[in-house]
Structure formats: structure tokens, C-alpha cells
Fold this protein.
Amino acid sequence: MAKSKHKDDITPKLDVIIELLQHILAVQLYKNGVPQEIIGGKLGVAKATVVKMVRGVRKEKNYGK
């Protein structure tokens, strides 16, 4: 019974970590020019979610390309 309770306690924390990692990945991909539709598909989230994640983020300029 104790293992089940421990598992229940950690699940919400892991969900938060997953959301933060998805956010970081979405921002980095977007900054490097990956379209929002592709980011959403790779992360398994809606494009609207990606739009919220990258709001205010500027794409990096690719000098020399």
C-alpha cells in the first residue's frame, strides 16, 4: 500500500517536470526556425498550446546562412 501512495504523490510532480521540459524544447525549436505545427506534432500538443508556449519569443537570426 505504501508504494501505491508514493507513486500517487510523485505523479503530479513528474507531470509538472514534463510540462516544463516540453516548454523549454518548444522555445528552443521555435527559436531555431521549426514551424509551430511541427513542434506541436513532435510534442504531442495542439498548435494553440505551442503558440502560448512561444508567445514573446523571437526567432534567432541565422547569420552566414
Q: What stands out?
A: The two ends are 59 Å apart (CA to CA). The chain has a mean pLDDT of 89. Residues 2-31 form the longest helix (30 residues).
